[in-house]
């Protein structure tokens, strides 16, 4: 069903396969407008990746329609007057896209597209059905345009190369990066006529408007003459356009395949194989693979169709975002050129917690295994002169290469906690042995990283903005040492267990002295960080912070019945921190990490989740978690039903959609509500 009011979003849906070579492919669908581009109303396939979730293979895949009599070309993103995006189901993430067009003579066209990733082959498959509402159908041509991005940085963009070729009876265009490591092949088939050739093809250079290297976009869309100036290839930052002549047919169906490979032959084989198989066969295999995977998990714990749908979509999203190496990227989007397609160890820990709660044990094992591989095991000094052995970098590419490098304690204590939680949930004593050295190295760093006054040294806060004694980071360090003590007890290392336990107790004894500030911005409450190096409009050592509620759950350091947490919860009712219209808590008052760069009315669903657990357990609001699960979170979703990072003052999607931390929190609050207690508390001593 088409909608009249589109919520501005970054990415409304993501799609991958749960197993096989298709699990190496991830694609997104974006229904416009975005948070910054208000003029568009179409929906578009964007940013497919393959083999590494942090490196794009293309920026987008456009479909365009040419009307010969009207001499008009319309594009799905720029010219659709309405659109819709939805999943096939909460368990099967086949994406259904509908775009509606209006031509100059007021006639219309509806383009319906079904999108999936092959269950067994590294390929993206799109079935397009177009129908024209004209009394006498004009002559039309459909164009497919792929904007290449087969490079890990813009500096490498000019090294791409693409050429026209044939493979197994199909016309194809195949492109590769400068290092000949990544290949993308485009092919199409019209089943009703069995046409496998292109009606025109062009390989151009992006942002080139004229001349022999003009882009396929300029040739097809901007020149608007219904003709493609054929060529056989190009080198540089390429785009690819191919045509399919529909004549005066009132409707038509065709299938487009984008195959990926580590060689040209592999990419071509991937594209042609799925076209030979046909969309229906690929869909059946895709659905079977996803249903089989969901059956391997515990399933929704609540007997409510709406909640179950949201729970399953969230779990499906986590699985889509998990790279076959084990890590889950934070999100498949890039606001203001700041990509989230990286792996944050802290986010990974929360995703492990959610996976374990949902019974996705193998996914949790794989994620923890990746954390062990990514740990710093050598004597390496960072920019602040801190020896980082035993820690993790701030975030990583999916292959384990470091990206940002600042020290955060939740990304040290957190992995130890994840190790402990996996052991607790599985009851598998082999888990203790498997990752013991990893946790031991991390705990040894924490023991040494003391400020000499019974507290950990300074570090970056969880929002990656402030260097100081952060409330959440300190709590995570304490939780890590307590978790290590339990692991060491099981291992028989009683001396090390006692050292960790005593150190955690000392830090916990000083926790409120550092992190709770009387007479602060909204009264007496926990703050972002004590002794911060950075000063904002509201200083981090004055403002309340939603991360304080993480210090309660899961870190189990701030006591829910304490006056300190109670007064922080009271401050969370203030309209400078929470949005009454959205019923959603912000990170902190006057937060300017927004699309405009200025403070806005709105909140973060994940922040509200942590606060609601504290409200529920304190008795401040007995229905807080139930309201989150059954009502509030359901109103904060994208067109396809995924939770974003931020919502606006009315509770609509604002920015950074499909944030996996947000999906994880819905799973965790649903599980906690069903169990009658918060899931996954760290040890309390």
From TrEMBL:
Q: Which family does it belong to?
A: Belongs to the glycosyl hydrolase 15 family.
A Gene Ontology BP annotation from the UniProt entry: carbohydrate metabolic process
Q: Which Gene3D superfamilies match?
A: 1.50.10.10, 2.70.98.10
Q: What is this protein called?
A: Glucoamylase (Glucan-1,4-alpha-glucosidase), GH15 family
GO molecular function ontology, one term from the record: carbohydrate binding
Query: SUPFAM superfamilies recorded for this chain?
Result: Galactose mutarotase-like, Six-hairpin glycosidases
Annotated GH15-like domain ranges read: 310-511
Signal peptide positions are none
Residue span, Glucodextranase N-terminal domain: 54-294
């Amino acid at each position: 069903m088409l909608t009249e009011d589109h919520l501005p979003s970054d990415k409304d849906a993501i799609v991958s396969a749960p197993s096989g070579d298709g699990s190496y492919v991830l694609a997104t669908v974006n229904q416009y407008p975005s948070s910054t581009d208000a003029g568009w109303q179409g929906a578009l396939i964007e940013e497919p990746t393959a083999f590494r979730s942090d490196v794009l293979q293309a920026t987008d895949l456009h479909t365009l329609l040419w009307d010969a009599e009207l001499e008009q070309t319309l594009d799905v993103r720029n010219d659709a007057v309405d659109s819709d995006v939805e999943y096939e189901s909460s368990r099967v993430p086949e994406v259904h896209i509908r775009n509606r067009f209006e031509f100059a003579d007021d006639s219309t066209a509806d383009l319906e597209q079904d999108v999936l990733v092959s269950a067994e082959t590294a390929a993206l498959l799109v079935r397009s059905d177009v129908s024209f509402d004209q009394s006498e159908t004009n002559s039309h041509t459909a164009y497919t345009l792929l904007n290449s991005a087969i490079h890990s940085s813009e500096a490498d963009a000019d090294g791409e190369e693409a050429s026209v070729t044939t493979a197994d009876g199909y016309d194809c265009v195949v492109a590769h990066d400068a290092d000949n490591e990544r290949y993308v092949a485009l092919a199409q088939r019209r089943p009703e006529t069995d046409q496998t050739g292109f009606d025109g093809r062009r390989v151009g250079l992006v942002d080139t408007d004229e001349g022999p290297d003009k882009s396929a976009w300029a040739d097809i869309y901007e020149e608007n003459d219904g003709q493609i100036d054929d060529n056989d290839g190009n080198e540089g930052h390429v785009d690819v356009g191919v045509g399919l002549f529909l004549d005066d047919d009132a409707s038509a169906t065709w299938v487009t395949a984008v195959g990926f490979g580590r060689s040209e032959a592999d990419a071509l084989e991937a594209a042609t194989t799925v076209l030979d198989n046909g969309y229906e066969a690929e869909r059946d295999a895709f659905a079977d693979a996803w249903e089989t995977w969901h059956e391997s998990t515990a399933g929704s714990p609540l007997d409510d169709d709406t909640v179950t749908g949201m729970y399953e979509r969230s779990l499906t999203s986590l699985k889509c975002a998990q790279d076959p190496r084990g890590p889950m990227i934070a999100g498949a989007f890039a606001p203001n050129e700041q990509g989230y397609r990286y792996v944050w160890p802290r986010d990974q820990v929360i995703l492990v917690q959610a996976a374990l709660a949902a019974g996705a044990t193998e996914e949790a094992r794989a994620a923890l295994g990746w954390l062990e591989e990514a740990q710093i095991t050598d004597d390496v000094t960072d920019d602040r002169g801190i020896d980082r052995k035993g820690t993790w970098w701030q975030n990583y590419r999916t292959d384990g290469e470091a990206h940002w490098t600042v020290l955060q304690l939740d990304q040290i204590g957190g992995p130890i906690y994840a190790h402990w939680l996996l052991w607790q949930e599985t009851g598998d004593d082999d888990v203790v042995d498997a990752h013991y050295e990893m946790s031991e190295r991390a705990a040894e760093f924490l023991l040494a990283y003391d400020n000499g006054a019974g507290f950990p040294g300074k570090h970056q806060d969880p929002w990656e903005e402030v260097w100081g004694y952060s409330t959440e980071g300190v709590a995570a360090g304490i939780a890590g040492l307590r978790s290590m003590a339990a692991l060491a007890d099981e291992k028989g290392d009683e001396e090390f267990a006692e050292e960790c336990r005593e150190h955690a107790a000392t830090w916990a004894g000083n926790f409120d002295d550092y992190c709770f500030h009387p007479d602060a911005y909204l009264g007496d409450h926990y703050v972002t960080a004590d002794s911060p190096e950075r000063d904002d409009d509201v200083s981090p050592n004055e403002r309340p912070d939603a991360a304080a509620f993480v210090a309660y759950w899961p870190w189990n350091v701030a006591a829910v019945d304490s006056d300190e947490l109670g007064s922080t919860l009271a401050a969370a009712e203030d309209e400078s921190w929470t949005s009454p219209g959205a019923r959603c808590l912000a990170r902190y008052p006057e937060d300017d990490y927004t699309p405009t760069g200025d403070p806005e009315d709105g909140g973060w669903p994940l922040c509200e989740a942590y606060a609601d657990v504290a409200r529920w357990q304190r008795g401040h609001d007995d229905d807080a978690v139930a309201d989150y699960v059954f009502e509030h979170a359901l109103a904060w979703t994208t067109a396809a039903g995924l939770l974003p990072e931020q919502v606006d003052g009315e509770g609509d999607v604002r920015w950074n959609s499909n944030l996996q931390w947000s999906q994880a929190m819905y799973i965790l609050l649903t599980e906690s509500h069903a169990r009658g207690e918060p899931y996954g508390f760290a040890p309390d001593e």
